[in-house]
Amino acid sequence: MKKRIETTHTLDASVDQVWNYVRTGAEWERWLPILSGSTIDGEGKGAKRVCKMHDGNELFETILESDDEQKIFQYQIDQQSFMPISDVIGTMKFSGSNGETRLEWNVEFEVENEEIFAQVKPGIEEIYTTSSQKLAELSR
Hints:
- By secondary structure, the protein is α+β, with helices and mostly antiparallel strands.
- The protein contains two helices and seven strands; from the N terminus they run βαββββββα.
- It has a domain of 97 residues: Alpha-D-Glucose-1,6-Bisphosphate, Chain A, domain 4.
- 24% of the residues lie in helices and 46% in strands.
- The chain has a seven-stranded antiparallel sheet with strand order 1-7-6-5-4-3-2, covered by helices on one side.
- The protein starts with a strand and ends with a helix.
- The model has no long low-confidence stretch (mean pLDDT 97).
């Protein structure tokens, strides 16, 4: 069954500064605490990224969009063993004014049942909240 998690975060940093840390897909381990490192092959749409996690797992991803004008970053997790979900597509939309950034970070994925969804939802929301806070700190 297809599920969606929608989160919104307010970052105390300018949208341009925040966007600069996200737009290429590189070095997300600087602000995404579950990652210990990453490599990226290519640039922009179609680039492939491998994210290494602290527990040794890896996420294999494809960048679907990195739009500098609209400040939208979208990625697809092609392969992972971190959570019992599949067909994962994450979308980050940035907007801002007066030195603040609004980040809408949403994810869609397939999950077997409501019980598994109830188990993974709080973890994903926590990852997004913590990462948004770290991104704000880095962008100041």
